[in-house]
Amino acid sequence: MSATLWNAADAVAATGGATSRDWQATGVSIDSRTIAAGDLFVAVKGDNFDGHDYARDALGRGAAAVLVERDLEGLPAGAPVLKVGSILEALNSLGRFQRGRVSAKAIAVTGSVGKTGSKEMLRVALSALGRTHASVASFNNHIGAPLTLARMPLDTQYLVSELGMNHPGELGPLSAMVKPDVALVTTVEAVHAGHFNSEEAIADAKAEIFQGVPEDGVAVLNRDNRHFPRLRDAARKAGIRRIVGFGSDHYADAFLVHAEISPTGSRVQAVIDRRRLDYRLSAPGKHWVMNSLGVLAGIAALGGDVAQAAEALVRVEVPKGRGQHIDILLPKGGALRLIDESYNASAPAIRAALEVLRMTRTGAGGRRIVILGDMLELGDSAPATHEGLAPAILDAGAELVLTVGPNMARLGAALPKSLHAGHADTAEALAPLAAALVRSGDVVLVKGSLGMKMARIVEALTALQPSQATA
């Protein structure tokens, strides 16, 4: 039986709300479709939905109580309701209250790329050392961060919080809520550039993560990134006394000695906090190798056993849509390999994915096929950034390229005509062409920003597999 996470009295104390009756909750949910019996349902409002419309459904699915900001009609008589003035402020209050009564050591991770992968490595590695609670999926914004805290079990020993932003002023309040002992910044690149005047401005926004770190806390920074000095100075200005660097530079506190990188993973030799370590990663690509250095440096800063943590990293699985390799049997025989990078995209992430594609062997008669959707939120730099991917595509040995969106059309025009095999305005429109084009032995990379819905193409390719083959 699950332990009680929230009771009515604590929830009222945290939020200042009023409840209709006593209740106990074993979890917290904002989605009535996936709610578990015993969860507190928080009726969050989004751009296209209002959780209040699903409160009755949540109760029907076994919710312990519903947190709302207005009176609702049609609820069962005596239904357990916690009414507050503002849903978002109440969720923040739940998060702050829970963080205040759980003494877990906390590490927060941000960066232009590599946040979720690093968070997953931290979750797996720290779980080998003690009871660990981490953000699920990419719950890293003004809703995801407090929700992660509100869900934290009282006996948590390690907290891993992924924090994201696309505008200035977002990270500071989230970091102040999490109160991380260690802040890890994976890297700073021209991502969300449409909302910033320069990469330096992006670095300054990422540096807001230091606002919640205490003076005896630690900032873990990428020495290979050109913004390292700027981030280091920002951390010191925030009062952080200890700065830990990671990267390929042997002057770093955590540095790479050697890596054998293959499409199925890597063998890594590294020095972490003056200790030589040998470990394996199942996730492919040098970007995973370099991010693992930051992860282990962060664990060392928390006082964790880095050798035990490094040994656990082999169990890290690539999150869905972030580089999974999927073998798809084809109706006429044979199979293709799909590299599913459909969740999101930036120029550095696309180049990293293309490097994995380059290393991945094709089958007999197969080709390397690249299917790319627009990178969003790049502002005036979008045309040049997209066109600038052409050399990396050629270096990866791509034999066919399909593109989605107006800016990827610019990339297509920059490629040899024999290489650019098709274009569409939307992923849904391109999906039939992609499905018709592939053949046995192909290796297919699919990547694009989340808003481009490149998962539609992944679905079309996986649907090629005969149903009896998946039974």
UniProtKB/TrEMBL annotation:
<comment type="function">
    <text>Involved in cell wall formation. Catalyzes the final step in the synthesis of UDP-N-acetylmuramoyl-pentapeptide, the precursor of murein.</text>
</comment>
<dbReference type="InterPro" id="IPR035911">
    <property type="entry name" value="MurE/MurF_N"/>
</dbReference>
<dbReference type="InterPro" id="IPR005863">
    <property type="entry name" value="UDP-N-AcMur_synth"/>
</dbReference>
<keyword id="KW-0436">Ligase</keyword>
<dbReference type="InterPro" id="IPR051046">
    <property type="entry name" value="MurCDEF_CellWall_CoF430Synth"/>
</dbReference>
<keyword id="KW-0132">Cell division</keyword>
<keyword id="KW-0067">ATP-binding</keyword>
<dbReference type="InterPro" id="IPR036565">
    <property type="entry name" value="Mur-like_cat_sf"/>
</dbReference>
<dbReference type="GO" id="GO:0071555">
    <property type="term" value="P:cell wall organization"/>
</dbReference>
<dbReference type="GO" id="GO:0009252">
    <property type="term" value="P:peptidoglycan biosynthetic process"/>
</dbReference>
<feature type="domain" description="Mur ligase N-terminal catalytic">
    <location>
        <begin position="26"/>
        <end position="96"/>
    </location>
</feature>
<dbReference type="Pfam" id="PF08245">
    <property type="entry name" value="Mur_ligase_M"/>
</dbReference>
<dbReference type="GO" id="GO:0047480">
    <property type="term" value="F:UDP-N-acetylmuramoyl-tripeptide-D-alanyl-D-alanine ligase activity"/>
</dbReference>
<dbReference type="GO" id="GO:0008360">
    <property type="term" value="P:regulation of cell shape"/>
</dbReference>
<keyword id="KW-0131">Cell cycle</keyword>
<keyword id="KW-0963">Cytoplasm</keyword>
<dbReference type="GO" id="GO:0008766">
    <property type="term" value="F:UDP-N-acetylmuramoylalanyl-D-glutamyl-2,6-diaminopimelate-D-alanyl-D-alanine ligase activity"/>
</dbReference>
<keyword id="KW-0133">Cell shape</keyword>
<dbReference type="GO" id="GO:0051301">
    <property type="term" value="P:cell division"/>
</dbReference>
<dbReference type="Pfam" id="PF01225">
    <property type="entry name" value="Mur_ligase"/>
</dbReference>
<dbReference type="GO" id="GO:0005737">
    <property type="term" value="C:cytoplasm"/>
</dbReference>
<feature type="domain" description="Mur ligase central">
    <location>
        <begin position="109"/>
        <end position="297"/>
    </location>
</feature>
<dbReference type="GO" id="GO:0005524">
    <property type="term" value="F:ATP binding"/>
</dbReference>
<keyword id="KW-0547">Nucleotide-binding</keyword>
<dbReference type="Pfam" id="PF02875">
    <property type="entry name" value="Mur_ligase_C"/>
</dbReference>
<dbReference type="InterPro" id="IPR000713">
    <property type="entry name" value="Mur_ligase_N"/>
</dbReference>
<dbReference type="InterPro" id="IPR036615">
    <property type="entry name" value="Mur_ligase_C_dom_sf"/>
</dbReference>
<feature type="domain" description="Mur ligase C-terminal">
    <location>
        <begin position="336"/>
        <end position="449"/>
    </location>
</feature>
<keyword id="KW-0961">Cell wall biogenesis/degradation</keyword>
<keyword id="KW-0573">Peptidoglycan synthesis</keyword>
<protein>
    <recommendedName>
        <fullName>UDP-N-acetylmuramoyl-tripeptide--D-alanyl-D-alanine ligase</fullName>
        <ecNumber>6.3.2.10</ecNumber>
    </recommendedName>
</protein>
<dbReference type="InterPro" id="IPR004101">
    <property type="entry name" value="Mur_ligase_C"/>
</dbReference>
<dbReference type="InterPro" id="IPR013221">
    <property type="entry name" value="Mur_ligase_cen"/>
</dbReference>
<comment type="pathway">
    <text>Cell wall biogenesis; peptidoglycan biosynthesis.</text>
</comment>
<comment type="similarity">
    <text>Belongs to the MurCDEF family. MurF subfamily.</text>
</comment>
